[in-house]
Design goal:
Elements (H helix, E strand, L loop, with lengths): L1 H26 L3 H8 L1 H8 L5 H4 L10 H23 L5 H15 L3 H24 L3 H17 L5 H11 L4 H40 L1
Helix pairs in contact: 1-2, 1-3, 1-5, 1-9, 2-8, 5-9, 6-9, 7-8, 7-10, 9-10
Length: about 220
């Protein structure tokens, strides 16, 4: 029970950090600079080993079926954290953030379901690459560059990140059946994208290891 509670708590903190990154993005008119500062969210998630669904889903291929429970609890925690940050910001003097978020949300809700799915898949690919490169990269500079570049790429490209959007929906105060449907599509798309690139990475590494072992024989 304690282990499951930890999954949720670490998920909540991850959601909070993504929410804080989202606030920074809303506060900065320049999109490039805003996306750069947004990366503080994922940087903190990786540095403090927090549970962010989009950073963990790709590793489902390497884990037992029980890993699904960790993913689901992390996702619930992500929602709680991002929802909390979004609604707390609605109680502050920064009403312009709310209006900016509403504009962002309306663009998403006026999009088609297939478009949302495709954009979510691409985001999932980038998120796995960013997190996995952080884990595998031995050089300290490379670790951080890959996170920053990954976050900037998915934001500037307009790709859909389910947890970031949980925050945007929350601060905008827009929750309805279409939002829930689109959020589920984003979660599915992020998952598919991460798993696709993770499958290639794992397959490539297995072949590489086999080749190296054959050379040693």
């Amino acid at each position: 029970m304690k282990k499951y509670l930890q999954f949720i708590i670490k998920g909540i903190y991850a959601g909070i950090m993504i929410g804080i990154g989202g606030i920074a993005y809303l506060a900065i008119p320049n999109k490039a600079l805003g996306s750069f500062i947004f990366s503080i969210g994922l940087l903190t998630v990786c540095m403090y080993s927090l549970n962010l669904y989009t950073g963990k889903i790709g590793y489902i291929l390497e884990n037992r079926i029980s890993y699904v429970i960790e993913l689901l609890l992390s996702l619930i925690g992500n929602f709680i954290g991002s929802f909390l940050v979004g609604n707390l910001m609605r109680m502050t003097r920064f009403t312009t953030y709310v209006e900016t978020a509403k504009n962002i949300v309306n663009i998403k809700l006026n999009d088609s379901a297939i478009s949302i799915f495709i954009l979510s898949v691409f985001c999932g690919i980038i998120m796995y690459l960013a997190v996995n490169n952080y884990k595998k990269e031995e050089g300290q500079i490379g670790k951080y560059i890959t996170i920053v570049m990954g976050v900037m790429a998915f934001i500037l490209c307009g790709f859909e990140h389910c947890v970031a959007n949980m925050f945007y929906f929350s601060i905008a105060g827009i929750w309805n059946s279409k939002v829930i449907l689109y959020l589920l599509i984003m979660i599915l798309g992020n998952s598919v994208g991460s798993i696709i690139i993770a499958f290639y990475y794992n397959l490539f590494n297995k072949k590489k290891l086999l080749t190296e072992n054959n050379k040693k024989v």
